[in-house]
Amino acid sequence: xxxxxxxxxxxxxxxxxxxxxxxxxxxxxxxxxxxxxxxxxxxxxxxxxxxxxxxxxxxxxxxxxxxxxxxxxxxxxxxxxxxxxxxxxxxxxxxxxxxxxxxxxxxxxxxxxxxxxxxxxxxxxxxxxxxxxxxxxxxxxxxxxxxxxxxxxxxxxxxxxxxxxxxxxxxxxxxxxxxxxxxxxxxxxxxxxxxxxxxxxxxxxxxxxxxxxxxxxxxxxxxxxxxxxxxxxxxxxxxxxxxxxxxxxxxxxxxxxxxxxxxxxxxxxxxxxxxxxxxxxxxxxxxxxxxxxxxxxxxxxxxxxxxxxx
Length: 310
Prior knowledge:
The chain is an alpha+beta fold. The chain has helices at 11-23, 65-81, 104-118, 166-175, 184-188, 194-202, 215-226, 245-250, 267-274; strands spanning 44-53, 86-95, 122-128, 134-143, 157-161, 207-210, 229-233, 257-261, 278-285, 292-295. A six-stranded mixed sheet has the order 6-8-5-9-7-10, with helices on both faces. Strands 1-4-2-3 form a four-stranded mixed sheet. It is globular and about 60 Å long.
């Protein structure tokens, strides 16, 4: 494992040193302008970026600094999971306003929590001043045969992992000044389904996408990429107890996985292995007038989250 280089003098490097001290072995080879890594022969390098911006993706009064940083990195890691890839490193760029500097240690711990959960390391990044806290994350991964969202065919079964609606319910309760109780954990500590994605790929997965913008929205993305339509049964959509079906269908930041397969998956084996359900919710059909048909529920607009629809 490559040790970090010594850093030069200056306030910026003092802040970086303070994060490196907290990260220890969870940060590898820091000090150069670029990261160096090796991937297994024959693998494909998979790269994704994500950004979390204060006031857009999180509110300071709703989450701790540690949770904010953890969620930011986990969102990027989920994009790697969505291609059934294994992460080999994370690059993170922090825009750190003066008011956030006393929380730098907590932010660093949140970054470390996320890479620990994904069994990967921090390989570099950047630190700059600015007016709003922003955490931009680049994740590097590898896969022998990445799964993409364009592999679904008519007749494929459509599955989703986990239980939906917790993050959306928590946000609604917080916005109304309430206590989200058990829903808060799903908002504050989401999981990137990396091991689950690789299991799905190994068991016949054909198309894969994570639920970041909402089940409805991401099913539409998968259908568009695969040039098919999808029919789902709202009564089969797995949701947390007490969650409204509309929040389960449209709520974002779930980071669960949607997968299509030409054959049935062993839902019981998946649940035993990972401790979360795998549920068949529908079927892929030949491309029709509607890319998505939802049976059993009336969903206003049938759209998920869109950054630029406001």
